[in-house]
Amino acid sequence: MLEKVTEHIHRLVVRYPFAMQETNCYLIKGERGYTVVDTGAYSEESLGIWQKLLDTGITVEKVVLTHTHEDHLGLAKWFQEEIGIPVYTTELGYMEMKKRRATDAKAKVKQMIQQHGGPYINTNKRDDSFIYDFEPDGFFQKDGYIELGDESYEVIWTPGHAPDHFCFYHRESKVMIAGDHILKEFSPVIGLWSGEESNALHDYFQALEWIQAYPADIALPGHGGLIENVQERVNEIHTSHKKRLEQVLSFVLEESKSVHEVTEEIYGSGQKLYVSQFMATLTRFIYLESIGKVKREETAGIIKFRAL
C-alpha cells in the first residue's frame, strides 16, 4: 500500500468517489511512529484504505495538515476521535475550519455565484460540515519549524489555493512537501471557497515567488505525480495563469460580461460546469481588477466586468 519516496518518506494514495478522487498522503517515519501529512477526503473507501494500513500494525504519532480543504482534512476528526491520534494545523487553518462548520457556509458560496451570474454551477450537495467539527490538538506557526518524523522541516506560508495553505521544506535533503501549492499535471485551482471575495490569485503569485527561496530537488504534491524539476514547474504554472488572464481579458474588450458568461465561453456552454471552473474565472477577474485592467459594474443585481 505504501510507496517509498525517500529513505524516511512513504506515499499512500487515498481514493474516494468524488471531486479529485484521490489524494497523496505522506507518512514520515520517526522513532515514535509515523507523522501523517494530510488524510484524504471522508468516504467509506478512504476509511477502508486507512484501516487496512493501520491493521498492519504501523504506529502513527500525529497528523499534520497542509491546509483544511475537505480532501486533505477529511479524516482528521476520525484519526483524532476514533484512533486517538493528535491532529495539528495552524491558527489560520482553525479559522477556516470554523467557517466551514457554519450551516450557512455553502449558502454564502451560492450567493456569491449568483451575484456573478450563476446559478448554473454544480455545487456539492453533501453536508460535510461535520468533518470540521473538532478541536486541533495544537498549532504550528508560520515561518517556524515542525517535526515530521524525526526531522525538522521549515514551515512556509503559501496562500492562494487556500488562505491557510502551508508547505514543509527539509533543507538538508531539499525535499518540499507541497500540498496543493504546486501540482505536476495541472495548475491548482485558485478559488474563494468560503464565499468571501479576496485577491487570492495575487496571493498565489506572491507565494510562487516566496517558494523560490527554498530550492528543492523534489516536491511531494497533494495530487498526481511527484515533481522533480520544481523550479521549471513553478515557471510553467505561472505562465499558464498569465495566458489564462489574457484569455479572460479578451472576452470583455468590447462589452461587459459576468463571470458566468465568460466561464461558459471558455469551457463551453453545452457542458456541465463545475464550481472550480467558475472560481478560476472569478479570481482572475478580481486580479485583473486589482491591476487596473478591468472594472466592475452592476446591472439588475448581477456583477459584470469590462476591460479598461
Short description:
This protein is α/β, with parallel strands linked by helices and 308 residues long.
Describe what this molecule looks like in 3D.
With 308 residues, this protein is α/β, with parallel strands linked by helices. It has a single domain (3-242), classed as Ribonuclease Z/Hydroxyacylglutathione hydrolase-like (Metallo-beta-lactamase, Chain A). It contains 9 helices and 14 strands. The chain has helices spanning 44-54, 70-73, 76-83, 91-101, 105-115, 200-210, 230-250, 259-267, 275-290; strands spanning 3-4, 9-15, 22-30, 33-37, 60-64, 87-89, 138-139, 145-148, 151-157, 166-170, 175-179, 218-221, 294-299, 302-307. The strands form 3 sheets. Strands 1-2-3-4-5-6-7 form a 7-stranded mixed β-sheet. Strands 8-9-10-11-12 form a 5-stranded mixed β-sheet, with no helix packed on it. Helix 7 packs across helix 9 and helix 8 packs across helix 9 (275-290). The mean pLDDT is 94.
Features:
7-stranded mixed β-sheet; 5-stranded mixed β-sheet; alpha/beta; single chain; 14 strands; Metallo-beta-lactamase, Chain A; 9 helices; 308 residues
What is the CATH superfamily classification? Answer: Ribonuclease Z/Hydroxyacylglutathione hydrolase-like
What distance lies between the first and last C-alpha atoms, to the nearest angstrom? Answer: 54 Å
Write the CATH fold name. Metallo-beta-lactamase, Chain A
The number of distinct structural domains comes to 1
Number of helical elements = 9
Biggest sheet strand line-up: 1-2-3-4-5-6-7
Mean pLDDT across every amino acid position: 94
- Overall form: globular
Q: SSE order in H/E notation?
A: EEEEHEHHEHHEEEEEHEHHHEE
User: Percent range for helical residues?
Assistant: 25-40%
Biggest sheet record: 7 strands, mixed
Number of strands: 14
| CATH class identity | Alpha Beta
Structural class category: alpha/beta
Strand content: 15-25%
Organism: Salinibacillus xinjiangensis
InterPro entries: Metallo-B-lactamas, RibonucZ/Hydroxyglut_hydro, Sec-metab_biosynth-thioest
Domain Metallo-beta-lactamase: 22-223
Keywords: Hydrolase
